[in-house]
Automatic annotation (TrEMBL):
It comes from Nitrosomonas stercoris. Residues 1-26 form the signal peptide. InterPro entries: SmbP. The lineage of its organism: Bacteria, Pseudomonadati, Pseudomonadota, Betaproteobacteria, Nitrosomonadales. It holds the Pfam family SMBP. This is Uncharacterized protein. GO terms for molecular function: metal ion binding. Keywords: Signal. Gene3D superfamilies: IL-4 antagonist (De novo design) like domain.
């Protein structure tokens, strides 16, 4: 019984580490999906497709932002995604593409910051 009680704290700590790692991986996957969708906006020629891709990217970024609400790069990236949606709905593909490139710059800053850790 004493042996079991002595290993319980270790099991608890290990469980916390595994859960934390799973959250980081989920966040990374959402960011990668947002980047893929935003890259697709840059390549898209149809403004309706641009709008749809930007909306999907925005959903992924909101998921990442829920775990890190004060991240300035996520906030700026979201603003650029809103610009993509606004510009593509106004049939301004070039302006939407420019906003997508700006959003990618913000998302790449997040990736670079994570690599440095």
């Amino acid at each position: 019984m004493n042996k079991i009680l002595s290993i319980l704290p270790s099991i608890f700590i290990l469980s916390l580490f595994v859960l934390s790692s799973a959250n980081v991986q989920a966040e990374d996957i959402r960011l990668q999906e947002a980047i893929k969708q935003t890259e697709a906006v840059v390549l898209a020629t149809d403004v309706k497709v641009m709008t749809q891709l930007a909306q999907e990217a925005k959903e992924y970024v909101i998921g990442v932002k829920s775990t890190d609400p004060k991240n300035e790069y996520l906030q700026e990236g979201l603003k650029h995604l809103d610009d993509i949606i606004k510009e593509s709905q106004a049939d301004k593909a070039a302006a939407a593409r420019k906003a997508a490139i700006a959003a990618l710059g913000e998302f790449n800053q997040i990736e670079n910051k994570c690599k440095l850790k």
